[in-house]
Amino acid sequence: MQRIVWLAVYSMLFLLGCVALENRDRYIDFVKVSETTFLGVEELLDSLDVPWDMQYNSETNSIFFTEIKGTISELNLKTNKRTAIYTVPRVYQQRTLGLLALTVHPDFRHKPYLYTCYTVKEGEHIFSELLRLKYDKGMISETKVLLKIKGARAHNGSRMVFDKKNILYWATGDVASQTHAQDSTTLNGKILRMTDEGEVPQDNPIPGSYVYAWGFRNMQGITVTLNGNIITSEHGDAIEDELNWIRPLHNYGWKKIEGYHDLPEEIAYAQLHGTTEPIKAWTPVIAPAALHYPQSDIIPEWKNSLLLGTLKDQSLHVLRLNDEQTEVIAEKVYLKDVYGRIRAITSDNKGNIYIATSNRDWKKQVGFPLETDDRILKLTKIDFVPNKYLVENEIQTVDVNSGKSLYQAYCASCHKDDGAGQKGIFPPLRQTEWIKDEHKFVDVMLNGLSGKIKIDEIDYDQMMPSFSFLSNKEIAEIATYVRNNFGNNYAAIDSMQVETHRKHDKQK
Ligand code: HEC
Predict the structure, then answer these.
(1) Residues 353 and 431 placed together within one structural domain of the fold
(2) Strand duo 218-224 + 211-214: pairing
(3) What is the DSSP string of 107-153?
């Protein structure tokens, strides 16, 4: 009898052990947050095509997500099965254009609505539409376009979020225009505020207008903190990516001011127009995208923090906020270059975090896409200490005396580490007329370049930003590095040559 009891106990222990091991098997990686907190990373979905935005919905215990070409899917968190629930008609997909933001009505039980936005093309004109979709037993039963605004071939933003009073905010892009962002009467480069029916609320700061705040370039993230503050993330040009705390009628400066108000012209403009500074800015740029404030905090070290997914930096930034949620008081970086570009983040009511990669988008990075891209990964707090784990990454700094370091910080995201570029989009930096001719080279770096050019029989027709904010010495270091690498063998360029060029530019 006793023997049988012992046998039963042993079998139980053995089975429990197997279950525990099997559970551990499902993690593809572990992340160390502190001596006492470790996360397990699970792969929930693979082979996706640029999941652009996603949001957890407690009512259905599922995640709704968009893919850039036009599909909306539901990921059931009980079964981890994905179902495509709708294909948005007329989505115009090219480079950064396509099906973008998605958000879920906070009162889903009574108002089972999804909201999404995307680019469409009508004749020669591009627009962004905001669409409301009614969800009914795993399907979409009804759709309605709530708002249509101007679009363009670049800078269409955009993200959406509901506040705690069920008011919808749409963060839009400036459609690469010179004037929209500073013009409070147009709908681009703005935060637009509307009811869940797409109407202008009675209490909007400008009566009869959707416009709530302005002065933005290309909005890529928006979230609401615990106390209701709205925070956005935004792509800068060659410098100064921004994180902004959004308040009514505030002007955030673009395109008169980039990032912090630190240049004499910027300070002057700020004094005249009362513009608001970002709560954080990044130079060199990191290309911030998904911004998410988890409402439940199972990870004590990440309490009261924003989670920011980055594209260029290929990482997860954890930005700890002050108690008022108006300032960033600490920044930590995780997952650097592990999963590639991170574009979407959400979390469930237990505090598990979900991130989506964006390695099949228009901007290819070295080593990606992986065969399994794009993926949705789940980060869960685990109750054991793994043998091997990823640790916090150092925040990228630039060695201003090294041409290589400067090149990697400012040029490699487009022209790549080896100067090979990306066919048809970013030209190679190898024995071209611009590399050979020192004047042309310095000119491109100081003034940028646009318009059609041809290199090795291939057409390029994008925009290269200006890098005139770099010092003469930094420009000289980069130019010399490029002219001595990537199969080039040309004379060094020194600071004096850059200085002469700048003076000449000024006289023109
Ligand atoms: C955001 C992407 C981006 C970044 C960052 C960037 N470039 Fe470019 N660059 C371009 C594009 C796009 C073109 C082509 C413009 C056109 O089609 O007219 C270009 C063109 C050039 C050219 C002339 C064409 C050639 O291949 O010789 C040079 C030289 C150049 N870039 C150097 C640099 C250097 C040096 C840096 C870093 C300081 C840099 N670029 C950073 C996008 C970028």
Answers:
(1) no
(2) unpaired
(3) TTTT--EEEEEEEEEETTEEEEEEEEEEEETTEEEEEEEEEEEE--S
**CATH code of the domain in which 449 resides:** 1.10.760.10
Q: Of 382, 417, 447, which residue constitutes the final position of a domain? A: 382
Say whether both 480 and 352 belong to one domain: no
High-pLDDT (> 70) share of the chain, % = 95
Instruction: Give the per-residue pLDDT at 365.
Output: 87
In terms of residue numbers, what domain contains 363?
27-382
Question: Do 378 and 411 reside in the same domain of the chain?
Answer: no
Structure tokens at 422: 């990306």
Q: Using a 6 Å cutoff on CB, does residue 450 contact ligand 1?
A: yes
- Look up residue 474 and give its two tokens: 């930094």
Q: Read off the pLDDT of residues 235-259 as tens digits, 9 standing for 90 and up.
A: 998 889 999 999 999 999 999 999 9
The residue written with tokens 């700890």 in the block is 320
Check if 408 has its Cβ closer than 6 Å to any atom of ligand 1: no
Tokens of 141: 């039963």
C-beta of residue 176 within 8 angstroms of C-beta of residue 155: yes
What is the Å distance from ligand 1's center to 462 Cα?
9
Alpha carbons within 13 A on the beta-carbon side of 350: 10
Q: What DSSP assignment string belongs to 386-411?
A: -SS-B-PBPPP---TT-HHHHHHHHT
> Among 353, 382, 411, which residue terminates a domain?
382
Q: Three-class SS of residue 267?
A: helix
Q: What pLDDT score was predicted for residue 507?
A: 79
Decide if pLDDT at 9 tops 90.
Answer: no
Q: What mean pLDDT comes out for the span 160-186?
A: 96
Tokens standing for residue 107: 């009162």
Cβ–ligand 1 distance for 475 under 6 Å, the answer no
Same domain, residue pair 329 and 424:
no
Say what the pTM is.
0.90
Q: How many domains are there within the chain?
A: 2
Q: Do 451 and 493 share a domain, yes or no?
A: yes
Size of the chain in residues: 508
| pLDDT tens-digit series, residues 207-222 | 999 999 999 999 999 9
Q: Is the CB of 429 under 6 A from ligand 1?
A: yes
**If you average pLDDT over every residue of the chain, what do you get?**
94
Residue 394 resides in a domain: no
Report whether residue 435 contacts ligand 1, using a CB cutoff of 6 Å: yes
Is 152 touching ligand 1 by the criterion CB < 6 Å?
no
The per-residue pLDDT for range 368-390, each reduced to its tens digit, is 999 999 999 999 999 999 999 99
Per-residue pLDDT tens digits for 439-461: 999 999 999 999 999 999 999 99
Mutate to test the pocket of ligand 1, among 464, 466, 472, 478 (most ligand atoms within 8 A of CB): 464
